[in-house]
Design brief:
2 domains, two-stranded antiparallel sheet, 8 strands, flat
């Protein structure tokens, strides 16, 4: 089942400003925080030096720049998430997709390589690999989507035939060509699968309920539907 969403509903489920989960995603590890903090400190020092050396008199501008630089470590994750959200919101049309898991499999993805030297002075290359879950979703019309995300222990409950939901994005009003899609939700398990949490999950659940998720009927032959208000 693929139901077109109105622009208003699409912009509700795909937020412009970062949500808490999106902020947490871009907050990163402690090393990422230290890197941002170092940038903040260096930026503030540079502004103070430039102001002192050139005897700048634009006190208000210098103050604003100083505040922005000092809190770079805090607001930059919001900026990163908001820019990623904006890339999704640039698509003209969105749709609510409900299908089933046709197949799933696990792969081992090479994320990067690190060169080091062992105790014998020999060059050793360490491969950084990550296990990923691959999902093939489809509906009764033959429409299919392949999705990849980092593997988590909670994913062991996924089985073939389970109902899966997501938001798809396109520049065509009939959604005949899908350009991007969101994270996946399994309503029977209350489970989300994603690398990045694209959606406002409260609004998305509201959409699913309005479309009769609780009935959990098997997919039927797709027919023309009106946009969801």
């Amino acid at each position: 089942m693929l139901v077109p969403l109105t622009r208003q509903k699409f912009e509700q489920v795909v937020p412009l400003i970062a949500t808490g989960l999106q902020y947490k995603y871009y907050w990163g590890k402690f090393s990422n925080f230290l890197q941002r903090l170092l940038i903040s400190v260096v930026a503030v020092v540079v502004i103070l030096l430039v102001t002192f050396v050139f005897k700048l008199e634009f006190a208000s501008i210098v103050f604003v720049l100083g505040v922005i630089s000092a809190f770079f470590w805090l607001w930059y994750p919001v900026f990163q998430a908001s820019m990623r959200n904006l890339q999704c919101r640039r698509y003209k049309y969105g749709g609510f997709f409900r299908g089933r898991v046709l197949d799933w499999w696990i792969t081992d993805q090479l994320m990067g390589k690190t060169e080091t030297v062992n105790s014998k002075g020999e060059l050793v290359i360490i491969e950084n690999r990550e296990k990923q879950i691959n999902l093939e979703l489809g509906d009764e019309t033959g429409f299919t989507i392949e999705f990849v995300a980092p593997l988590r222990p909670a994913h062991k409950v996924i089985t073939r035939g389970q109902i899966a939901e997501m938001v798809v994005m396109s520049n065509r009003p009939d959604l005949s060509s899908i350009e991007q899609f969101s994270d996946i939700y399994f309503p029977n398990r209350d489970l989300w699968i994603s690398d990045y949490p694209y959606l406002r999950r409260d609004f998305f659940n509201e959409v699913g309920q309005r479309l009769g998720r609780d009935q959990q009927q098997k997919p039927r032959r797709r027919r023309r539907v009106e946009e969801l208000d």
